[in-house]
Design goal:
This protein is mostly helical. It has two domains: 190 residues, MFS general substrate transporter like domains (Growth Hormone, Chain: A, Up-down Bundle), CATH 1.20.1250.20; 208 residues, MFS general substrate transporter like domains (Growth Hormone, Chain: A), CATH 1.20.1250.20. 83% of the residues lie in helices and 0% in strands. Helix 6 packs antiparallel against helix 11 and helix 10 packs parallel to helix 14. The protein is globular, with a radius of gyration of 20 Å.
């Protein structure tokens, strides 16, 4: 499979859609799972939490392993684990076994997904890498737009187990593509795989001002995104009274913002626009959007209609930022791109989980304050890291 082929782009995008499909398709099934397995709603909701735990942990080990043993064996192991564990979920006779399989599914998804970034670093440079990441971002954006609808559609004529059966099929297809179509891309790191060497690699990324700065910037921005994802269902449906269908349209609209931003960034990359341009535009637009929504809340003018335009601008900015931030993190670590990708994936997931807990605890069930304040705090913190850590580091490197 040639690196410039459509098939290779679909392969990379396929690795990236495993998490949103695994999370969002199962959202409508939580109540049926609890009823079918004679358990509580809280334990059924743990199917999401344990998946995220596995997804966060896997990159820490799989990234370094892929630097030393190659991307291909880790991808095969990740896709195989994902497919088998999804099948296990489909046939699980108890909530305990379902939770165990969801943890394994998260591990498999994390192993496969983190390497998509490393593959781009292996095979592409500069503007071409950012353009390819943008293409992947456009394709990935479809998953959160359609996944809840697919899950609800399956439940309209079949049991919840068929959702996990479909995920098992998706994993098997992805495994076949990797096994038969993917040729190793990594230039292997020959240093010994010891705890000391592993710690040294991670420390090298953390000490690199630009790479780690981009990872922190990405994690903080993702915290803002996950604040919106966590709080918007309660805020829009329970507080503002949107129907499920109306909320689904709104949520799909903001997901489309990411896709649109990724497409615009891809066009800019093809024209060899310097990456600092979409980064400045993205951070500026995002900061203005979240500040405006906070002002609307303060003025008691907040509603789905007034908040949505700025939420769209916020997610559009995410599409502009993500490819450039991702490339900025791994660009300076070609020999340990897997480790750099792991640092970014782990910090992103931990930041998102923390943001979800904060907004859940802060939400008062009657206003938009929690969502708008926390989103603004995360976006402003991300911008602060960009302007005080990353950009000065890049200017210093350019002068060297």
């Amino acid at each position: 499979m040639h690196k410039n082929s459509i098939g290779f782009t679909i392969l990379l995008a396929g690795l990236g859609v495993l998490p949103p499909l695994s999370i969002d398709m199962g959202l409508p099934a939580l109540a049926p799972i609890a009823q079918s397995l004679h358990t509580s709603d809280a334990l059924a909701a743990m199917t999401l939490s344990l998946f995220l735990v596995g997804f966060a942990v896997a990159p820490l080990f799989c990234g370094p392993l892929s630097d030393r043993f190659g991307r291909r064996p880790i991808l095969i192991a990740g896709c195989l684990t994902f497919a088998i564990s999804a099948a296990g979920c489909a046939f699980a006779p108890s909530i305990q076994l379902l939770l165990a399989c969801r943890l394994l599914q998260g591990l498999g998804s994390g192993a496969a997904t983190v390497l998509s970034t490393a593959l781009v670093r292996d095979l592409f440079e500069g503007h071409e890498a950012r353009a390819r990441l943008s293409q992947i971002g456009v394709l990935r954006s479809f998953a959160p737009m359609i996944a809840p609808t697919i899950g609800a559609w399956i439940l309209s004529f079949a049991q919840w187990r068929f959702i996990y059966g479909l995920l098992a099929v998706v994993g098997a297809v992805q495994l076949s593509i990797v096994y038969f179509g993917f040729v190793e891309s990594a230039k292997l790191n020959k240093s010994p795989l010891t705890l000391k060497a592993l710690a040294s690699d991670y420390l090298r990324v953390v000490k690199h001002r630009i790479s780690f700065g981009y990872a922190v910037m990405n994690a903080l921005y993702f915290g803002a995104i996950f604040t919106y994802v966590t709080n918007s269902p309660l805020l829009m449906m329970k507080h503002f009274g949107l129907s499920r269908q109306a909320f689904g349209i709104m949520f799909a609209g903001t997901a489309f913002g990411i896709m649109a931003g990724s497409w615009v960034n891809g066009q800019m990359s093809k024209r060899k626009v310097l990456p600092k341009v979409p980064l400045y535009i993205g951070m500026g637009l995002a900061s203005a959007a979240v500040a405006t929504n906070l002002a609307l809340t303060a003025l008691h003018l907040d509603s789905p209609m007034t908040l949505f335009p700025c939420l769209f601008a916020f997610t559009f900015s995410a599409g502009l930022l993500a490819p450039n931030v991702t490339h900025g993190c791994v660009e300076h670590m070609p020999d340990i791109a897997g480790v750099a990708s792991a640092v970014m994936a782990f910090s992103q997931m931990m930041s998102g989980a923390l943001a979800g807990m904060i907004v859940s605890a802060a939400y008062d069930e009657s206003t938009s304050w929690a969502m708008t304040i926390i989103m603004m705090s995360y976006v402003f913190a991300s911008a602060l890291v960009f302007f005080t850590v990353v950009r000065p580091g890049e200017r210093k490197l350019a002068r060297a």
